[in-house]
Each structure stands twice: as structure tokens, then as C-alpha cells.
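FORM 12-B: Structure-to-Sequence Request
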């Protein structure tokens, strides 16, 4: 298995639904880690935490945008 550049992430079927997310690279990195260490998921915890934090920030930004676009303002 050859190493690929960081720009060429492996295609994951479920990744398409978040490919426009700011957290796409964190998501695919966590999946790649799971592939590499499937027998020891604890080695991927840092990837999970980074992705979770990214999604939290993304959600907060989306909520803030929605507040500013309220139909009632």
C-alpha cells in the first residue's frame, strides 16, 4: 500500500455527504486512522476529538447564521 499525498484523500462512501463541510479533512483522517488501527480504536481518539470539535464549531456558526437570518427580525 503506497502513501498518497495529503491532498488526495481516499474515497469513503459516506464522506460524500459532508464533502462540502469545513470538517471534511478531519472526518476522512479519522476514517483513515480507523482503517489503520481497527484493532485499537483508542489510537484514533485524537482524530475523533479534533473532528468533534470542528463539527461543534461548524454547528455553532450555522446556528449563528440562522439567528441573523430570522424571518421575524
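FORM 12-B RESPONSE
SEQUENCE OUT:
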Amino acid at each position: 500500500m503506497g502513501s498518497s499525498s495529503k491532498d488526495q484523500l481516499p474515497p469513503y462512501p459516506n464522506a460524500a455527504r459532508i464533502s462540502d463541510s469545513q470538517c471534511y479533512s478531519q472526518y476522512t483522517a479519522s476514517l483513515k486512522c480507523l482503517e489503520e488501527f481497527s484493532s485499537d480504536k483508542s489510537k484514533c481518539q485524537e482524530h475523533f476529538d479534533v473532528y468533534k470539535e470542528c463539527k461543534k464549531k461548524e454547528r455553532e456558526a450555522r446556528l449563528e447564521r440562522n439567528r441573523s437570518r430570522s424571518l421575524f427580525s
